Amino acid sequence: MSNFKSLAFFFRPPAIARGLCFFFIFYFAFLYLQKVVQAEETSVQTNELDPFVITAKGGFATSLRSSPWAINRLEGTELLYSARSLPESLSGLNSVMVQKTALGQSSPYIRGFTGYHNVLLVDGIRINHSAMRSGPNQYWSTVEMLGANRLEIVRGPNGIIHGADAIGGVVNIISKEPRFTDGEMSHNGQLIGRLSSAEHSWTAGVKGNFSTPDWFAELSHIERSFGDLEGGADIGEQENTGYDSRGSQFRLSRKLNEDTRFTFGFQNVFMDNVPRTHKTINGLTWEGLTPGSEIWRQLDQERNLFYGKFSWEDAGGLADAGLLTLSLHKHEQERQRMKGSVSGLATGGDFQYFGLEDLGFSSRFETDDPWGGRLAYGVEWQRESLYSGGYKFNSSQIKSAELVQGPLAADAHYDRFAFYLSDNFLLGDWSVEPGIRFSSIQADLERYYLKNSDSSTLQPSEKKNYKELIGSIRASREVMQGNFLFLGLSEGFRPPSLYDLTSTDETSAVERPNTSLDSESFLQAEMGFKGSSDSWNWEASYYHTWINDMIVRSPIESGKSDVLKANANGFIHGLEIQVGHDWSPSWSSQFRISLIDSEVEQLRDNNATGSITVDGRNYDPIDRATTRLMPPQFHFVTRYAPPKSNWWGDISILAVGKADDLSLKDETDSSRIPSNGTPGYAVVGISGGRKWGENSSVFLAVENLGDVDYRVHGSGLNGSGRNFILSFSRSF
Q1: CA dihedral defined by 202, 691, 88, 174, rounded to 10 degrees?
Q2: How many CB atoms lie within 10 A of CB 556?
Q3: pTM of the shown model
Q4: Could you give the CA distance from residue 409 to residue 450 in angstroms, rounded to a whole number?
Q5: Is residue 675 pLDDT above 50, yes or no?
Q6: How many CA atoms lie within 13 A of 646 on its CB side?
Q7: How many whole angstroms separate alpha carbon 281 and alpha carbon 670?
Q8: 424-439: string of b/e by CB count within 10 Å (b at 16+)?
Q9: CATH number of the domain residue 693 falls in
Q10: Domain residue limits at 478
Q11: DSSP label at 82?
């Protein structure tokens, strides 16, 4: 690792100097050269048939084909019909592993990062907040897809546009565009349903809209119920894995003129009694796993989002196009568990909750720059308010004692302010995107404790300030017709969140607060190639991410399971390949392969010298993989869709290698991860759909056709066995 550390040091000057170097060197130097070479084009040229994405540009369209980013775009209602949740719709994409802590608690790993290292957006509005857990978490499952038109996934650091946490990638769920009429009022609706055998589940949803020349309104509601999940082979029904959820959405848009629009939106999602099974006596002994001693553990979540947007185009001046967004995001979570004795008897438990209110404002503007390019700039502000609490109860679930706080600080605030500037211009044959962002974050810790069960551990009020200046430079060039080389050097950052600073999690190890943490910083270099011909399309990219001061959990001292968060250095690098081919007008195929490797320091800062013993196992203070590294993954799908027909069919194969490159946390997680790693697997699925007339469609699928017994690495339950899915929709 010594050579790597030297290289990382070379690329990691102080933040201010680094940002200034990015901006002034790349931005002004490239613009000067642009004038010298006197490029004939004055704007980025794209194919009119080329699809566009908005996530990489923060609200304004950019060409998917020529964009200097690795991007996936998932279209259509098939996502709603086939996937049981938002995270699982991402399964099989390049460098994406979807881990399921529970059936209703799943989140993606993107390029080796998960949890608060990825940004989740709903129509461009940030869902991430400072109470979001590290590692796989439950928050991604609180986004319903009934009103979604498409998903956009941008892989790699995109901190210039999306700020903190945008390290592994950014996922944006985008609603359908409002449809205004040319004359009389119109209205329509849709009914959808989904049934699944191995999940013992049903889904029912309804949505409707009406429109006039100036107004558009849409309302939707969906209900989901999942029973206990059946695993493959002889696993059978996995007890206490089912849950219920519901979600509602409302949008109202007013067209002021052809280029100006106001939109108001509301979303609500509630998840009821989502069990976390692997920590309980219902956990599996699969591959030598050791179930937990808890009798039961359940989680409730409710998320409400209110927002207003004002957008315009072709106005001229310094704000030729603009987008103003005001939002209020409220998230509440309740967790309760009943602990048990060695003999399996209930001994009492606890109830913990937290609530967070996030008031945010963002602005983004675009205008032509003097050199023929397009300049974008914006200002963002957020104010987060956190509260938490809880109590203990006895074996009869009678309250026995108050907790001084819940899993996080009893009272805290988290403020963010940011300004960013980016450009997009032609430099000869290159399309260049430089950018710079300044962020200021303040954490106000007014009341927090070292132990949520001990009032004597109250800490004095404390304010923590973090300032970050980051830069980015990306470029693409059409090397032959329809084929683009793209390069990127992008920074990302993440200041310590309220979760990092105040968490007293006692789920597995006992986690202690640490307010002396430094901000995490990341630098990713990427090179890729993407393009298409008459019958082929492809994308390949290699990336290397230098990690500085990543916040990890390390044991405090030998013989104890207490952990303290600490900063550590390391790297992640990987290779992504995607190739598609049209064999005929009816047949097409696509395959993806992803390889990832990483190292990060462990046991460095917490009084650990030499080998230490934790829970009876010996560990050396050596470099290990980052938490839950995705094993090699291969995904293949072939489709038959006759031209001008009303039906289609797919065959898919997902093959995953053995996950034996384990982090320190993985090595101690005996209830989810076998001691020698998670075995590899391959699952085959078939699916198809048919449309009847203009109003009705049906979707049929068989997941895990071979009834294979398998587990996604780090999951708290095994994957579904042979699973028959029937989905249908009816428009009216």
Answers
A1: -110
A2: 19
A3: 0.88
A4: 10
A5: yes
A6: 9
A7: 14
A8: bbbbbebbbbbbbbbb
A9: 2.40.170.20
A10: 2-396+412-438+467-731
A11: H
pLDDT score at 19? 40
Q: Fill in the DSSP letter of residue 160.
A: H
- pLDDT of residue 176 exceeding 70, the answer is yes
Residue 496 counted as domain residue: yes
Residue 624 phi, psi dihedral angles, 5° rounding: -130, 170
Task: Measure the CA–CA gap between 110 and 90, rounded to whole angstroms.
Answer: 10
Kindly report the average pLDDT of the chain as a whole number.
86
- Does a structural domain hold residue 250? yes
Angle formed at CA 365 by CA 359 and CA 370, multiple of 5 degrees: 155
Does a structural domain hold residue 457?
no
- Residue 91's nearest CA partner among 727, 724, 714, 653 is 653
C-alpha to C-alpha distance for 183 and 214, rounded to whole angstroms: 10
Q: What is the DSSP letter of 286?
A: G
CA distance 462 to 465: 10
CA atoms of 712 and 719, how far apart (whole Å): 7
Mean pLDDT on 609-636: 67
- Nearest-CA neighbor of 92 among 599, 630, 688, 581? 630
Asked if the structure places residue 459 within a domain, the reply is no
List phi, psi (to 5°) of 606.
-115, 50
| Lowest mean pLDDT, pick from 125-134, 198-207, 259-268, 310-319 | 310-319
CA distance readout (Å), 255 to 18, 180, 229, 364: 43, 8, 46, 19
Residue 561 is given by DSSP the state -
C-alpha dihedral (59, 371, 23, 318), degrees to nearest 10: -50
Count of structural domains within the chain:
1
DSSP string, 7-72: HHHHT---HHHHHHIIIIIIIIHHHHHHHHHT-S--S----TTS-EESGGGTSS-EETTT-SSEEE
Residues 6+ apart with CB under 8 A from 35: 371
Please give the pLDDT value at position 493.
Answer: 94
